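Hi there,

I know you've been waiting on this one. I reran it after we fixed the sequence typo, so this is the corrected version. Both the input and the resulting structure follow.
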Amino acid sequence: MNTIARTWSTDMTFYALSDQFSIHKADAKDWSLYYSIYYNQAYNGFFKEYGFDVYDGNNAFWIFNYESKIGGVILNENRLYNLFFIPPFNDEIKVVKLLKHLLVDFSDGSKNITVINVLPHQVDLFSQAGFWADVNRSRMMQRPTEVLNTIWDDGFRIESPVMGNGKFSIELEIAELFFESYKGGINAARRNHISKESFIFKRSSNIFTDSMLKASTLVFDNNTNQLIGACLLFLEDKQRTYYPGVFNIGVLPNYRNKGLASNMLKRALTLLYGEYPILRIGVLQGTYAESLYYNLGFMPAHVEVERLVLPSSEIKLLKSIQ
């Protein structure tokens, strides 16, 4: 048994979970090959252009049962994701509980431990180990890009957003639009969007490439000059040229049922055609938006729980009795 460390380090290469199970630092390329096969074929097929790439490869670990490799996982302080097991191993709950104890040991107790990228069949597994499941289920949807006919009402003005110094030129107006669009709905509650400032994007601006900005849409009311709709596109990984996705889309309540959301998506599909073959969007299961995208030809992937958490209050309790 190794000496237990109290601070997470990317230099950690080995950890004995028990006398039987251990984790060993993995080569990211080798690990990702196994991940591409054993994580979930339906999920990996949906994102097939990722190939054998793995995000956060510095924290990829093999899971061993004595001398046999039985799975893999990505771990860092307070976070676990992309867990998979290699058949015929099937004592998964035992390993999940041991991984939980590892994360509790390395956690300072002030932050939740979060599990992300949870496959449907893994939800009960993590729940049995004491993690609390997010009540919201979501899925990715995708559609081939295509030149589509779009008819806009003369009362609306259509523009593409402009960025400068890493910010949208009308950043506050866009934030207010999305806040008003989602206010009181499940999306706002899920993301803890409680003010328009929470919609001011803090992600790296390099995801909004020139192509993404051109295919994004701002809709204005010609009579009032008010921004009434927006669809922002982004590229998740500019260097590896992954497919574009819808970063955010919204229409003010008083302007709904006029086909604005459909037209913004049709415009995106048209302007991306010839440069990117696919457009993707994430959506909560069972919402109106899911039906809208489906009616536009977007094909859904499997439903997944976005995250499960072990609250910091539980971590402190576990630490006190270890």
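Quick highlight: Confidence is low (pLDDT under 50) at residues 1-5.

Best,
R. S.
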